[in-house]
Design goal:
Layout: E1 7-11, H1 16-27, E2 31-36, H2 39-49, E3 53-57, H3 63-77, E4 82-85, H4 100-125, E5 131-136, H5 149-172, E6 176-183, H6 189-200, H7 205-214, H8 225-235, E7 246-249
Parallel strand pairs: 1-2, 1-4, 2-3, 4-5, 5-6, 6-7
Helix pairs in contact: 1-8, 3-4, 4-5
Length: 255
């Protein structure tokens, strides 16, 4: 129960890494607020977790929606100690194929959304003790891929944003640690989208998944509970002297 007494707002909490994180946090003793635009999934997940969970509508690109979500978390559980910025999208496109509209949409959700999450988290947590922000980056924010132009740019931004916010909180004397994770390919709905795209182009499901697995020295995809475990560690008091870190959860990809 290493997260006992923590209250966490998790963006993108209705699916993928966010949903696995919500389940794990609750199992570890935290109360969780699942922030997402997917109302049906978010409400169903909150019901499955029980009294320790609540759902709130959250469009991460909206400043007002973030303010409302933070306020809802405090109303529901009395305080807020932790914010996890997990919401994100990944749409492939090389520099020749990507459009300005698509590039801006990816930045808006992945980078602007994380910026707003950090901004509202710092405002809510700076008067307390033991606050934590954990951002979900990507190995593709550190090691580029040719067909992930927008995604690489957004996740590279998340890495530097995380470290800048960590330094600011430390310099201001706020008791807020700011860290992130760098997942490799995790078998979530996002990967399933690539499977469907590959099948539409004539590849088999097995071929697409094998292609993802081959990028990792461990020769497999990650499971959602694996990055969730890293997030739980960074949110816990066990990481009390860790800030500005980006923890790979990548099967050795960045080694």
């Amino acid at each position: 129960m290493r997260l006992s007494g923590k209250v966490a707002l998790i963006s993108g909490g209705a699916s993928g890494i966010g949903a696995a994180t919500a389940r794990l946090f609750a199992a570890e003793g935290a109360s969780v607020v699942i922030g997402d635009i997917q109302a049906a999934k978010g409400e169903a997940l909150a019901r499955s977790i029980g009294e320790a969970a609540a759902y709130v509508a959250l469009d991460v690109t909206s400043d007002a929606a973030w303010a409302d979500a933070v306020a809802a978390a405090v109303r529901r559980f009395g305080r807020l100690t932790t914010v996890v910025n997990s919401a994100g999208i990944s749409v492939p496109g090389s520099i020749e194929d990507e459009t300005l509209e698509g590039f801006r949409r990816t930045q808006a959700i992945n980078l602007d959304g994380t910026f707003l999450g950090c901004k509202h988290a710092v405002a809510a947590l700076k008067g307390g003790r033991g606050g934590a922000i954990v951002n979900v980056g990507s190995t593709l924010g550190q090691k580029a891929g040719a067909i992930f132009t927008a995604y690489c740019a957004s996740k590279g931004g998340v890495k530097m944003l995380t470290q800048a916010v960590a330094l600011h909180c430390a310099e201001q004397g706020y008791d807020i640690r700011v860290n992130g994770i760098l997942p490799g390919a995790i078998h979530t709905e996002m990967v399933e989208g690539y499977v469907a795209a590959g099948e539409a182009q004539g590849a088999s499901r097995e071929q697409v998944l094998a292609g993802f697995a081959s990028a990792h020295p461990m020769k497999r995809l990650g499971r959602p509970e694996e990055p969730a475990g890293a997030i739980a560690f960074l949110a816990s008091d066990a990481a009390s002297f860790t800030t500005g870190a980006m923890l790979p959860v990548d099967g050795g990809m960045l080694s």
